[in-house]
Design brief:
The protein is built from ten helices and 28 strands. The protein is α+β, with helices and mostly antiparallel strands and about 500 residues long. Among the domains are: about 1-55, Wheat Germ Agglutinin (Isolectin 2), domain 1 (2-Layer Sandwich), CATH 3.30.60; about 60-110, no CATH class; about 120-175, no CATH class; about 410-489. The strands form nine sheets. A four-stranded antiparallel sheet has the order 1-2-5-6.
């Protein structure tokens, strides 16, 4: 089998060496051991591992999230290059993943490392475990003990943050699972990702991701680590899935019940993007009594008369700014003009709210250990923090395993009945029709362009023939013919 590769001018032939430590791979500079490789028949020392031949030409890597990295067959500098991850000096003629805008370089080994999955309480980003760091003593110091780092180092490449693994073991250092299966995204597993794009938001609560998250690259689905502890528990007759209680949705949402915009507190089906105002949920408590306003009961509303008289809106319970009531449901006392966020009185709301349990599929303990728990994923004490925010009451204390008995056809029929899904499918069908029409128009224009090109080529050939004939007349030895050609010209 022969292939053409961008790194060499000759074609390369597939070979299966039993053992060949005499030569090194041109790409990674590691010995050609047992296994398939590609070699040049004219220059026998040029050999590439089959895995190095199959490296992607362009990658998006968490060590350098700002730009794509391009695979080069040699250093872009006059001499070799230094890998920005492991600090190793590499040869001039050695493959490198390079960012030209930032002069950022990764060798093949570091570009293929397992993505960072260590969470350390002293740093905002995830860390990667490196077996060895090739750096001078002062360039790589442990942030915990201030001693030089060389072997078994937890490292954040972007920030040059380093800590000995032995020092990290004494701190709150949690190894995240390689994958989790979450009910918000049941079709594909989610993997931990770090250093996100600036515009990346959590698909559950819409918060802008500032540190690490769990991602499905295939579906472009992102789940912030704060939302991994949430689960749907609220029954609503107008939707076929249970809804999840979010104490704050960080973007305006469209309520499918009253067909109006909302902000803040929301009941949401993440999978279907189904959103509901609190006041649109029949089982949500309409009247409560809370210690922040003990004199009178508070009534749930999305219309506070005082909002029409001012441009600034505040919660009288926490004295913080709030959204206008037509966008955010609030509890209100008309007699005292007292307004409170729902989350400020949540301790009285949750006990009155009817919830149901639904299956939550977390990673198996045998596969991921105790990392599948909320504390394992977010760190010790995370469960208490969630409880203080009033979220954990909406999370089942136990997971109940149930079998999915509905077949695929029944599931698809159930999805079709949902009005939001039907509306989205209609819009999708319209976009597909417009796309097909544009494609047909493009094909017609392409055909027309082809015909014009052929006509242009015919005219060009005819012009060349006339010019050739004219040139022959000009160089003719007979003056009469030359004069005739010149007069015709």
């Amino acid at each position: 089998m022969e292939i053409a590769h961008f790194s060499h001018q000759h074609r390369l032939i597939l070979r299966d060496d039993k053992k060949n430590d005499e030569y090194k791979c041109y790409a990674c500079q590691l010995p050609i051991s047992s296994g398939p490789s590609y070699g040049c028949t004219q220059y026998k020392e040029f050999i590439l591992h089959k895995s190095c031949v199959e490296l992607p030409k362009r990658i998006e890597h968490p060590y350098h999230p700002q730009h794509f990295l391009i695979l080069l067959d040699k250093s872009p500098y006059l001499k070799g290059y230094g890998c920005d991850a492991c600090r190793k000096r590499c040869f001039k003629f050695q493959f490198v993943y390079h960012c030209d805008a930032c002069d950022f370089d990764l060798d093949i080994g570091c570009a293929s490392l397992v993505l960072p999955i260590m969470r350390y309480e002293g740093h905002e980003h995830l860390l990667t475990l490196f077996d060895k760091i090739h750096a001078v003593a002062d360039e790589c110091l442990c942030k915990s003990c201030s001693e030089p780092c060389s072997a078994l180092v937890l490292r954040c490449v972007e920030c040059n943050f380093n800590v000995h693994k032995s020092c990290a073991d004494d701190k709150s250092c949690v190894e995240l699972p390689k994958q989790i299966q979450h009910i918000f995204h049941p079709h594909q597993p989610l993997t931990p990702r770090d250093h996100p794009r600036k515009d990346l938001r959590c698909n559950a609560c819409a918060v802008v991701i500032k540190n690490f998250s769990f991602r499905c690259e295939e579906c472009d689905f992102t789940l912030g680590h704060e939302c991994t502890s949430l689960a749907p528990t609220i029954k609503y007759e107008g939707h076929h899935h249970l809804l999840t209680l979010f104490h704050e949705f960080h973007f305006r949402f469209w309520c499918v019940s009253c067909e109006a915009w909302g902000h803040g507190f929301v009941f949401r089906c993440v999978e279907c993007r189904f959103n509901l105002h609190p006041h649109c949920l029949p089982s949500f408590p309409r009247t409560i009594q809370h210690k922040c306003h003990e004199t009178c009961p508070l009534t749930l509303t999305n219309s506070v008369p005082e909002d029409a008289d001012t441009d600034e809106y505040y919660c009288d319970a926490c004295e913080k700014q709030r959204e206008e009531s037509r966008y955010e449901s609030v509890y209100y006392c008309a007699d005292c003009s007292f307004v409170a966020h729902i989350q400020c009185v949540i301790s009285e709301v949750l006990p009155l709210l009817h919830t149901e349990q639904e299956k939550i599929v977390w990673p198996k303990e045998a596969e991921f250990g105790d990392s599948s728990t909320v504390e394992g994923l977010l760190g010790a004490g995370a469960g208490d923090e969630v409880l203080e925010k009033g979220i954990s009451a909406a999370v089942p204390s136990e997971t109940v395993e149930v079998e999915v008995t509905a077949g695929r056809e029944e599931f698809e029929a159930e999805i079709t009945e949902d009005p939001v899904i039907a509306k989205l499918e209609g819009e999708n069908a319209k976009l597909r029709a417009e796309n097909e029409a544009s494609t047909a128009k493009l094909e017609a224009l392409t055909a027309k362009l082809g015909a014009l090109t052929e006509k242009l080529e015919a005219l060009t050939a005819k012009l060349e023939a006339l010019e050739s004939e004219h040139a022959q007349c000009v160089v003719s030895k007979r003056p009469s013919e030359r004069d005739k050609c010149l007069s015709e010209a």
